[in-house]
Fold this protein.
Amino acid sequence: MLALKLAYRNIKGAGLRTWLNVAVLSLAYVLIIWHQGIFTGMLKHGSQAVIEDEIAGGQYWHKNYDPFDPLSYDESHGPIPAELTGLIEDKKATPILIRQAAIYPEGRVQTVLLKGIEPGQTILGIPSAGLEKEEDALPVLIGRRMARSTSLDIGDYLTIRWRDVKGTFDAVEGKIVEIMNTQVPTMDKRQLWVPLKELQKMVTLKDEATIIVVGQNVQGQRDISDWKFKDQRFLLTDINQVVRSKRISAGILYAILLFLAMLAIFDTQVLSIFKRRKEIGTLIALGMTRLQVIALFTLEGAMHGILAIGIGAIYGIPWIIFYSKTGMKIPQATEEYGFALAGRLYPSYSVGLVLGTVFIVMVTVTIVSFLPTRKISKMKPTEALKGKIS
Amino acid sequence: MNLVKIENLVKRYPMGKSQFTALRDINLQFEKGEFCGIIGPSGSGKTTLLNIIGSLDIPSEGSATVLGKKIEVLSHKEAARLRCRHMGFIFQTYNLLPVYTVFENVEFPLLIMGMSEKERKKKVLDALEWLGMTDKVDSRPAQLSGGESQRVAVARAIVKQPELVLADEPTANLDAENSYNILERMVKLNKELKTTFIFATHDEKVIGYLKRKIYLVDGQVAKDEVMH
C-alpha cells in the first residue's frame, strides 16, 4: 500500500511524460481488444453461417466423396443406409445428391454442381421450399452470387446438361424459382439446387445420395459402412485455419504496438532512475531498503499500465459497444475470399478477452518497468547522494 | 553508554590500480545527547566518517558500533532498519523529495516506519511547529527558500525523535541569518529531546555552537576537543 501510494504520487508529479505514456499504452489496449474482437466475431459469425446453411450437426460423406476433387463426384454416391432412414423420416437428417453438370448462361458454357435436396427439409437454412413449386421446367434454386455471375433472375430458363450414372449425356430445361441470400459461398457459387427426387431420376440413382446432413440436435453419430461421419469440428477446420492465420498476422501487429509502448515505458524508467539518483540515495538514507526502492520504481512504471486501463476504458468501452452493436460494413470484394462473411461484421467481445489482454499487457509493462531498476540494487547510496551513478 | 563507538577504523577506496586511504586509525566514542562536530577541510574524510556512522558505508578495517549494532556486519535490510528507526539525516543540499509537499516530505520517514495516519499527522505537525514551518505545509520544495528547505529537512530528520541526527554541512548553502536560525533550533532540539547531533562541517558558524570538536586532517583525528 505504501509503495502504491508513493508510486502514484511520483508519477503524478512527472506530469505530461506520464500522460503521454499512458495515452500510448491505452491505445495499445483498446486496439488489441478491438481487433481481437473482430477476429472472434469473424469466426463466430462465419461458423454460425456455415453451421446454419451448410453443415448443421455434421455430415455423412460417401466413402468416395472428396469435396476438393471434382473428379470424385461421379463415383460419390450410394444407397442411403437403413440406419439413417429413420432420422430422415423424422426430419432430423436430409440427404443431398451431388453431380456435375454444365449450363449455358448467355451462350457460354459453365460447369456447375447439381445438388439435389428435399424441398421440405428443415435441416439447412436455405429456402428449399421454393423447389416444391409446380413448374413447366425443372425448378432450380440458386444463390445471389451465382445469379450475379450468370445474369440469371427469378423466372429465367436455362439449359442444364449432365451425364447419368451410365455415362449418357442428357439435358433438361430448368427454371429459376428462387434466389437465396446465403453468406456461405460454398453453397452458392457454381451450384444449382434442384429437388432430390428429380435429380435421382435424371441420373438414374434412385434412393441414393452423396452426403447426408444431420440436424444440430442429433448426437452420437458414427461411421456406417460406406458412409464416413464428419463432425462440426472437422467441417469447420477451414474457417478455423483462416481465422488462426489472420490472428497470427494480427499478433505480429500487436507485438509491434506493444513493443513501441514498452519502449516508451523503458525509456521513461531509465531516464527516471538517472534523473532521480540523488532521490534514490535519499530514500535509502531515510530507511528504505534497496528492494523497497526497486519496488517503488517498478510500481511507478507498472502504474502507467493501470492508469492506461482507466483511460482506455473511458474511450474504449463506448467505441467497442458501438462497433459490436452497429457492426462494420464488409466490402463486397471479400465474397471472393470464399469465406462466410455477411454484409456487416459484428465484432464479438468477452470478459476473457478483455481480462486476458489486460493481464498480458500488465505483465509486460511490469517486467519492462523492473528491468532498468536492477541498477538500483548495485547503487552505492553514498555515490547516489552526490548524484553519481556507480 | 556509548551511542557510537569507533575502533581502529580504516576506510580505503580503489583508485585505478592503487588504493586511496580516506580514514585511518580512527578511534572515537559518542555519548547520548552530545552536540559535536567532525571538522576539517574538504577531502579530510568528514563525510566518509559520517556515512559509516550512518550505516551508508562500511569500514575497510576496524569496527563501528552504532546503537549496539556493528555496522560492518549488518545486512542491507538491517542497516535500513537502523536508519529508519534510530537516525535522522540532514544534507547540504536539503535532499527534499521534489514532488511531495512539505507535509509529505516530513511524513515520509514515518510512512516507512508504518505508523498510523493519526499518529503521523500529529508528529509531523509537531515537528513543523518546532521548526516554524506550519504555514508552509502544502508548499512544494520548489516554492521554498534555502532556509525554509533546510528547516523542512531538519523537521524530517527529527520527526521520529531519533537517538542520532547526522548533519553533513547543513549550513553550506545558507546565508548567515538562516544558518544561525537553523543552528539555534538544533541546539534547542538537542537540549529538549536529548538527541545526539554529529555534524560534518568546516563552517565557522557551526563550529561556534559545537560542544565537542573533532578535527580531522588527512583522514586522521588530529584533535578531539570538548568545550566546557
